[in-house]
Amino acid sequence: MKSVQKVPVADRLFEKAETLRLRCDYKRAYNTYKKALLYYKKQKDKEGILETSLATGDTLRMLGNFNTAIKYYRNALSIAENIKDKTAKADALMGIGLSLRALGNWKEGLRYFKKARRAYKSLNDTTGVAFSLWAEGVALRIKGDLKVAIETLMKALKGFKGNVEAEGYCLNSLGGTSRIAGLYEQSLRYYKEANKTFKKIKDRFGIAYSHCGIGNALRMKGRYSEAIRHFKKALNLYSKIGDRVSSAYTLWSMGMTYLVQNKIRPAQWYFNRAMANFKKTGDLRGMVYGLLGKGQVKAIEGKKSETLKLLKTAMDICEKIDIKIEKRYIKEMLKRLSLSEPYKIVEIP
Fold first, then answer.
1. Secondary structure, 3-state, 34-88
2. Inter-residue contact 201 to 165 (CB < 8 Å)
3. How far apart, in Å, are the Cα atoms of 118 and each of 129, 140, 183?
4. What is the pLDDT of residue 51?
5. Please, what's the b/e burial string for 21-44 (b: 16 or more CB within 10 A of its CB; e: otherwise)?
6. Rg of the chain over CA atoms, in angstroms?
7. N or C: which terminal CB in the chain sees fewer CB atoms within 10 Å?
8. Which pLDDT value is given to residue 7?
9. What's the mean pLDDT in 288-293?
10. Measuring CA to CA, how many Å separate 234 from each of 206, 210, 212?
11. Structure pTM?
12. Within the chain, how many helices (H) and strands (E) appear?
């Protein structure tokens, strides 16, 4: 009888973590990766440490723990350079860039995306190049350069041709950028296409993200009850996944939907919950949106001095991370506050 070769504990744990991550069970995946990493370190298995560090960074990013994710990516980058693994080096650079972008540091994020793209090009990795273009497009959207952002995302979409999951995420990003550009019908179309794509491959995070996007597009078209239904679907999935980052934006969107209907109490409740999540994840851009939501509630209540204080804090963050679109919302709110008539809500896409 032939003896069955046992799979090493570290490899077994890593595979289990990968399965959990594919199911979007990020909390359990993270804990399992940590156990695998301990075993790889005991064995001094550099390739195992490298692969697990990258995967742990990706998982932490999905959980909104960006600063810790950067530490894992930097560790992976150091090992990749040491063992001359060019693909892993490019992936680590992307991970650092994505984490920095999520923290509001889009400028530094762009620098890492460009470094990663050079590495992917040297490897003739077309998917990697498309990935870096997608990341750059989203960073440009945060910057406020919407025309170039859309052009960059369209290039990424072409590069992802045949990669269904990547196409779905690119469609989501096009949906969000189109919405901010005021192209609401186009935004809705992109998000609906993404939703169908993710349902086919049973990607829970993608499904949730696209539901939030559909909700926001419907919100901007004045279809509020439909928007709320989609936001609730997104929040339900995010709760199961354990995603604080995207759920924060969905909570904010719920608040905005109630606000434009003059339902002040529920709006305030959702803005407060969103703000708590933005603070936990360290998302500076998200905090600006939280401050704008809370500021509008105070403005409607006639608390001008409190509103001005919130808007000053929001403007200070905008200056710090150099974001333009959000500054325009603040200026419009200040303009409406200066009028003698009752405050009129600024509808933020």
1. HHHHHHHHHHCCHHHHHHHHHHHHHHHHHCCCHHHHHHHHHHHHHHHHHCCCHHH
2. yes
3. 8, 18, 33
4. 98
5. beebbbebbbebbebbbebbeeee
6. 21
7. N
8. 67
9. 98
10. 10, 8, 6
11. 0.94
12. 17, 0
